[in-house]
Amino acid sequence: MVTFEVEDHDGNRQSIEAPDDMGLSLMEVLKASEYPVLATCGGMALCATCHVEVLEGKDGLGEATDVELDQLEALPEMFDTSRLACQIRISEELEGAVFKLRGEEN
Amino acid sequence: MITTDICIIGAGPVGLFTVFEAGLLKMRCHLIDALPQVGGQLSEIYPQKPIYDIPGYPEVKAQDLVDNLMKQIEPFNPTFSLGERVDHLTKQDDGSYVVTTSDKTKVHAQVIVIAGGLGCFEPRKPVLENLENFEGKGITYMVKDPEQFRGKKVILAGGGDSALDWTIFLSDVAEKVTLVHRNETFRGAPDSAAKVFDLANNGKIDLILSSNLTKISGNGHLQSVTMKNKAKEELVVDTDYLIPLFGLSPKLGPIADWGLNIDKNAIEVDTTDYSTNVERIYAVGDINTYENKLKLILCGFHEAALMCHSAFKYVYPDQKLSFKYTTVNGVNSF
Ligand SMILES: Cc1cc2nc3c(=O)[nH]c(=O)nc-3n(C[C@H](O)[C@H](O)[C@H](O)COP(=O)(O)OP(=O)(O)OC[C@H]3O[C@@H](n4cnc5c(N)ncnc54)[C@H](O)[C@@H]3O)c2cc1C
Ligand code: FES
Ranges for the 2Fe-2S ferredoxin-type domain (chain A) (predicted)? Predict the structure, then answer.
């Protein structure tokens, strides 16, 4: 299990514990935790509605792929810390990370 | 006013197939979609992806499926209002409806079918003060009629394929075209990116890279756009139009206010005929919900068939419908 924090659209932070051995994506965990993530394309890096900012722990995540950057760059707002939640796998590297929801709410 | 038997809101795969099922029963259809093209999610989100669960097609590209659906419904001559969002629904004394779009198009129909999928694909808007004040007064999020920009000064913003494609297209139409992009390179199709750089090198367009939009100004109509580069230097560019192209995102939109029973952004329906709680209004495809609903194209097609058989009674109140296979009569056009 890993523990990381999620900051919602109103700035409230909550600690989330998630299994790191099930191949889940951060988008799936956010949805399962009832965060209002739209995730229109279901995790295919096609819609960018699962946009998050990595406030802490960016180094553990590795570089975004070209496909991911394609989507992020299409958004009106993109930050140096921007990522797609569906492209982040839940692994032990996420321990202590902090994510801020940026994507569209459902 | 356009007059038809069935007004279909949403020209995604399910809306398109509804035309076929309605046509077999001699009911005419008019389709309205907020997007400038038909195909819904398939054309907008994943045109190049293969789909594997359409019966009879071991594999089909999403856009090819849409093209085939268009061919399949050709005999029934459906009419379309594209690039228009349906806003209002007004019930007439005889039970029929008049639908009004964002462009004030009016459609009179005996039956309304909502095939709105995830909702309206709406443009993602830049975060700019006073944005709403200039919408329709210089700011537009969709190029519906390029002639609108002939001889005008136009700024486009974005780095995806549509920003590149429209920059290339409008460079021959507008007096001056400026493209603003946040980064130094483009991730859209390499051919289009190369063409845009060529146009900039030949002085045909102004290319402003590594810059963000920060301010819009004007007196009633847009007059100038301010942008800031990474060194925080400001640049003010005079313009008649700003076209931000940052992609689209679905929102349920005005349908939510029509008195329909809605559960988590989806319309509740009766699974015997996919009717809603309001008489003569049906909902098919991704926009409806019921126990064990699956958001699949296949399921939407099935819903469209049952729904059309139920709608027949409103279009032909004096006739009794008897079920026939298409192989009995063929597909009779009108
Ligand atoms: C990445 C991805 C992959 C998928 N893969 C598959 C697959 O392999 N197999 C499968 O069966 N399904 C798949 N799906 C799901 C499939 O795309 C949907 O089930 C299908 O598109 C639903 O069709 P629809 O016609 O109901 O709605 P949509 O395709 O969503 O079309 C609805 C249309 O209605 C319009 N609209 C909505 N409200 C209004 C309004 N007020 N005014 C005007 N227009 C309006 C919208 O602009 C849109 O064009 C996939 C979806 C995605 C995102
Ligand atoms: S869910 Fe669509 S890009 Fe992540």
Answer: 1-105
Residue B45 has pLDDT above 80, yes or no: yes
And the tokens for B49?
């992806």
Q: Do A47 and B249 touch (CB under 8 A)?
A: yes
- The interaxial angle of helices B190-201 and B161-170, nearest 10 deg, is 40
pLDDT at B234: 95
Comparing CA positions, the residue from B140, B160, B157 lying closest to residue B149 is B140
Contacts of A49 in chain B (CB under 8 A): 249
Q: Which of B45, B182, B244 is the closest to A41 by Cβ?
A: B45
What is the rounded average pLDDT for all residues in chain B? 95
Token pair, residue B22, equals 């309605």
Q: Count CA within 13 A, CB hemisphere, residue A12.
A: 4
Report percent pLDDT > 90 for chain B.
86
Radius of gyration of chain A (CA): 12
Tell how far the Cα of A40 is from the centroid of ligand 1, in angstroms.
Answer: 10
Residue B22: band (very low, low, confident or very high) from pLDDT cuts 50, 70, 90: very high
Q: Find the Cα–Cα–Cα–Cα dihedral A18, A24, A28, A33, rounded to 10°.
A: -10
Both ends of chain B: CA-CA distance in Å? 21
SS3 B140: coil
From chain A, the residues in CB contact with B246 under 8 A are 74-76
Contact in structure between B313 and B17 (CB atoms under 8 Å):
no
Contacts of A45 (CB under 8 A, 6+ apart): A65, A67, A68, A70, A71, A84, A86, A87
User: In this structure, which amino acid lies at residue A83?
Assistant: R
In DSSP notation, B169-210 reads: HHTTTSSEEEEE-SSSS--S-HHHHHHHHHHHHTTSSEEE-S
Pocket lining: A54 vs ligand 2, CB cutoff 6 Å: no
Would you say residue B91 has pLDDT above 90? yes
State residue B330's pLDDT score: 86
Q: What is the CA radius of gyration of chain B?
A: 23
Q: In a 3-state reduction of DSSP, which class is residue A18?
A: strand
CA distance B48 to chain A (A): 11
ipTM: 0.86
Q: What does the pLDDT look like over A21-44, one tens digit per residue?
A: 999 999 999 999 999 999 999 999
- Integer Cα distance of B180 and B163 in angstroms: 9
pLDDT tens digits, one per residue of B171-189: 999 999 999 999 888 877 8
